[in-house]
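Might I ask for a little of your time on a matter of protein folding? The record follows directly beneath this note:
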Amino acid sequence: MPDALVRRRAPAAERNHDAILAALARVLPRSGRCSRSRATPASTRCSAAALPGIVWQPSDLDAGARASIEAWRAHAQLPNLAAPLAVDVTTDDWGIGEVAAIVCINMIHIAPWEAAQGCCAVRARVSARGAYCTCTGPIGAHTALSNEAFDAKLRANDACWGVRDMEAVQSLAAANGFSFVEAVDMPANNFSVIFTKDA
């Protein structure tokens, strides 16, 4: 299959990329390894280009998504964009070692809450002290009518899915040793919620 056909695009998600990148650029280190999960392949490539001091480690459990990431990686030829890993966030070992930051985009609302719990526990083990952890997506069903409708649609598709409550996300992070820094408004009633590792 031609490389260009493998490279997926997600226009709706990519419209948020500049806002997400602006939030990340304020808190991410200038160098080190950053784990990035469930981001669109094209936006992962853009992050690597915009923040060249960071080695970006993308991951996705979906084989098609990983193929797309690899196709974008081959197309971009960026030395700081690593080959994608197949990471199941509910497992104890992600195979990535210690990282300076973790970026999770559009994941916890399309997975069971147990996935968020497992993901946060592993983040705590692989994040260096002072590392930043961000979670971006439609967090807080009560913040907008559109999010309430989206939450109902998600739960109709799978009862274990749903727009997560902001306080629940913050409590889960705190239970795993992360301090809340801020929640940054994103387009379309999304948020980038930023935490830092305490110890």
About this structure: The CA atoms of residues 110 and 161 lie 5 Å apart.
